[in-house]
Structures are given as structure tokens and as C-alpha cells.
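Follow-up to my earlier ticket, as requested here are the two runs.
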Amino acid sequence: MARQMGPVYLRWLGTAAVLISDENTGILIDPYVSRFGIFKVAMGLPLQPDLEAVARCVACLEGINIQAVVVSHSHFDHCLDAPYFARETGSLLIGSESAVNVGKGAGLEDRYLRTVSPKQVIQIGHFSLRWIESAHGPAFLGRVPFPGVIDRPLIPPRPARDYKLGKTFSIMITHPAGAIVHHGSAGFIEGMYEGMKADVVLLGIAGRSNSGEYLQNVPLQLEAKRVIPIHFDNFFTPLEKKMKYLPGVKVNEFLTAADRYRNHFKIKMIAMNEKSAILPV
């Protein structure tokens, strides 16, 4: 019989960034707070991580015992700040070879870096994390931005184009209270979740192509009970400003498409920085 435990909590921190925690352990996924303006990104200007913003964010997480910082892929809005969150919390940075090279460029010691491969499972407290190979959505003019790998330490400041995609993962997170999937990029590989189930899916919706196909291949395939949209805010604006939708994200279209499946799962919108119990469902 599974051990009875307290709930699992979620905080959405903007973009695909989330904090998942129980009473003992916290796991940060894709933390990004530097929030560069669109002009700076589009013009290829160097991006200097905002270490003060990282420190403020960590200070606001109420002393949670963060033991891992996890990166789903190595684009700047998922990976640029991650090494500094790992340093600030004294935790592991876990991700692809590209993500680890971002960590090396930030000066993290090897003992704080862990490279993962598809199907690998890592235990962090009562959480079991399984890396599942996925695909990035066609986020810019029908194409995946900044393809390729980061094959050497990436020392900042560097332009957004240098934060190449690397491997794209979704992360299956199992816990005695239930199972969560972090699907941070709005692409998929057909059949990638075959034979798997999850109670909750954290679903990145920016840059998707067909909402119906996306829903069928991710939350419906996983037989999820709850879908929580993430990565729909305008991450080119500071966190201190009122949250606005990313241009072109079409949130209402997504919600209309999801409503067709209301007999299968429920959509739950979570406000940024709101602490919500998500397991058990």
C-alpha cells in the first residue's frame, strides 16, 4: 500500500517555470526570471542573467528545501537562469548535455551538475523523475527557434540564439500522492506517452500548432484528470508588471478546444506565484 502523505503543491512562476513541493522537498523546473525585452532578444544583444531577480525569487519561496533545478530544454527562457537558481539553493542542476554546458559556463562545479538521457529516472526525496524525449513546438513562423546543441560551456552574457534547443524533455514526476507530467514545450512525439498515466499535466501552450492534436497526444493519452496551462504569459515583460498573454498564444482558442474534452479532464488556471495543492486530485 502506498504511504499516506500530505499534498503536493505547485507554484507557477511564469513561462514554463514551476516549483513542485511536498512537506520535505522542492523541485524547480525551468526557472526564468531575467525577462529580457523583445527588442534585446530579437536584435541578438547579449543577455546578462539578473542575479538579483534570482535571489529575490528564491527568498520568496518560503524556505522550501529545494533539492533540484531541472531543465526541460536549453532555450534561454528555460535554461538561462537555471544555474543561478541551483547555486542560490545549493541544489543539483539536471538536464541535457546542452543544459549542463550552460551550468558549466555559469561556473557550477561538476558535483552540482547531472546530465540525463531519455528514459532515465532520478529519485529526489519522495519524487521520482523520469525523462521522456519530446519535441519543441513550431514557436516562430512555423519553425522551432534556435535548433542545435550547446557543445561547450556557455559563458554569459550571450545572445538568445546561443541558447540552442538541445534535447527536449517532458518530465514524469511520480510521488506517493500521485503523478504529474511537466510538458513545457507545445510539441510532441506521437505515442511518446503510450502506456503511461498521470493525474495532472502541466501543459505549455505557447507555440503549439493544432490544439486538438496536442490535447489528444498529451493529456488524453495520459488519461489526465486535470490540465494546468503554463507558458502562456508574455515573458518579454518584467515579472513586476501585470501579467499579459504572450502575443499569438490564443488562450481562448485553446480553452475552447479543451472544453470538448471536459468529460475526460478539467482545466485549472493558476495565477502566477499562487501556491496550489494539486495532488491528490
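Run two:
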Amino acid sequence: MPRRILLLITDLQIGGTPTVVRELAFRLAQEEGVQVHVACLDRWGPVADQLKARGIAVTALAASSRLDAGVVFKLIRLIHREQIDAVFSFLIHANTTAALAGLASRHVRFFQSIQTTQPKPRWHWMLQHIVQHAADAIVVPSPSVAAAARKWAGIAAEKIVVIPNAVEIGEFSIPKRNIPGTRIGFIGRLDPIKRIDDLIAAVALLPEEFTLDIYGEGSQRLPIESMIRRLSLGPRVTLHGAVAGAAEALAGIDLLVLPSDAEGFGLVLIEAMAASVPVIGTHVPGICDVIRHGANGILVRPRNPKALAEAIGRVLSDGSLRENLIAGGIASVRDRYSWSMVYPQYRALLVNHT
């Protein structure tokens, strides 16, 4: 009998965690004796199209809301119909749904993933504390998430497995850009936790030749547009909306900045490193696990536009620093965050378990 693995996620829209699920599914599907199925709680999304195009079975459970109890019964039917023997769920809503389905699926092993370090909403962590008992192991992408899981959800350290996010270096090979350049980029959800307003304020402190390209969509789009108008930065700041993949956006920028208050990991950081784009991030949980200050990127204090502007100016004006950061970033991805290094850890957990 083949090993039948179900990857369950809240949605399959463009984003960091759906990207991890997609890439993991691609690799599991290549294993001899393994069948992989991907499901999401929400409706069909663009990442579902990408999975289907590669011949991977995808099911959208199409929950009407986060409180739709019917999605649990849909998941139970899917598990039984496909004879699933391992379910790996990502994020709190999927973790909870999988835990409830597990009550009617005693023959199945369950694994959960936590991808955040944000302390709020606290009820997420309280719920995670309850549902973690249904899982054999809790996978997290960084030591910062492991610490948050222990602190906020009371998960035992021995139950936590740290497996970092990963990229395929070859997928981010882009033409080398001219030096110096003044094109700053942000790629991600337009969410309050990302502190994009700090980055815009930093751009306002820089000379006029510095421009900012923002790639992504989210709840903060209107406040961001208002701030751009208020600071008269229209000619220098461009909102591009969502992109299908980070490589397209990275090809057009000279520096990637992630000014968040917190991250679980910051997948875009290693995507930028793989694309030979230097990175600046805030010294906060998640980001500080990936960026080693001065070696593969620059860390600055959070919520400090002045410090951010100074760091941007320094990286984009100092060719030697820039080249050192690029080299350090490529080495980090090659040695720690490439799929060739990371996937064996998933294989050991999901394929080789007994």
C-alpha cells in the first residue's frame, strides 16, 4: 500500500505558507510509494491551479466561514475516501479542523504546523494549546516560533520540530543588476503587522532618486494609499498589487526590506537572498532567525523609520557592503535554506515514520 499524505491549509491564495505547502507537495509527489493530496478550507485559489497543473490532487473544502462545522465532516469524508494515513495541517484553523476530524479517524497520524510569533489574538494560542494534543509533532519554521509555541500554547519542547522554510535557488536566478541602484522593494501582505508605513516614512527621509515598489494586497491598501498622498510620494512609491511569485518582483528591485513587528520566518527574505538581492529586516522574532546582521543582511530596530532610512542608504551606496551581503545571502540559502537541505527533514517526518 502506498503512503497517502494529506496536506491541509486554510487557503491556497498567493502567500508564504501556501508556497511552502506547494513546494512540499511537489517533492512528496516524487517519492516512490507516496501519494499526496492537498486540501484547503477555503475556496479554490491560484496555488491550487499550480498544484493541479503538476498533477497533484487538490480539494477545496469551501467552508462558508471560519465557524462552518460542516467542513470537519467534509474533511473526514476526504480522509476516508482517499484512505489517508497522515495529515499535515498548517495554521490554526486547519490545525483545529484536522484535530476534530481526527476524532473520527483513529488510524491516521496527525502533524501540525505553527507559522507565527504574534502573541495576539491570544485565543489562537489558547485553541492551539487544546488541539496540539491531537498531533504527533508540531512543526515550526524557526526557533522564534518554537519559543512562542512553548510560551503561548504550552507545547512541550520535545514535541516541537524545527524545519526551516526553503527555496529552490535555481528558480530565482535573475540578471545581475547595475550598481548602484536605488529601487527598494517590499513583497508581502499589506497587513498592519508588516509595518509598511514605517518603510514609506523611511523613503520620505531619503533623496528623491530612491523609489519604493510594493507588491502585495491586503487590508492596509487604503491607509497606505492615503499615506503616500499625504507625503506627496506618488511619483516615488508604486503599488503593484499581488504577483504570482516573488521572482518576478525581485527582478525589478535593488534591495528587499521587511519592516515587520514579527514574523514566523520571512520566506521572502530567503527568496531575495537566492535572487542576489540584499535584504534589510527588523530585529524581531522570526526575522532575526534568518538574518545574521552584517553577514547576510542588515537588522534595524523595529518601528524606527530613521534607522531604516539610514540602513537603506548605507546598503545602496556601499558597493562592497552590498556585494558581501549578497554573497552571504547566497551562502545561507545554499547551506541552510535550499530544498535539498530542508526536504530530507520533511521526508524523515512524513515518509519514513512508522
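The only thing I checked on run two: The mean pLDDT is 95. Let me know what else you need.
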